Amino acid sequence: MIRRLGAEVRDEVLAVLDTVMDPEVPVLSVRELGIVRDVLVDDRDGVTVVVTPTYSGCPAIQAIERDILTALRDAGFENAKVRTTYSPPWTTDWIPDSARAKLKAYGIAPPGATTPEGGLVQLMRPRQAPACPYCDSRDTEIRSEFGSTACKSVCWCRSCRQPFEEFKAI
What we know:
alpha/beta, four-stranded mixed beta sheet, GMP Synthetase, Chain A, domain 3, 20% strand, 3 helices, 2 domains
């Protein structure tokens, strides 16, 4: 039997994770969403995927963990485990630009910056309505802070008259 190196196993696991889609935002993989924090490989080809949910009460985390394990076992990683960690807390800063573009193409306004220039965040900061993902107009309004999931808000574009969701910056 040829033994694979840890880096090879890790790369294979990361490729599998690229196929595991987020159940609430199915246009993004769990890696693109930024919730996969690490992949650990032990000396027996066992792997542990470390994930951080988008927030501590995320109802999708159990489905995500199940989907990760199913995909890894289907790919031959029988000793796969998922470890959930809440520290450091997840932030939308972990979503790469390529994934933000996918959100926009899907009709969800991508998250804005989490902190203003200077880095300090006010607790009750007013926020600007996002640009419309359909027509790029800034003439939009936030209709509800909570959309189909707690991490999205419901918005309306006055220009193209389309409703849309915004992935809130966290």
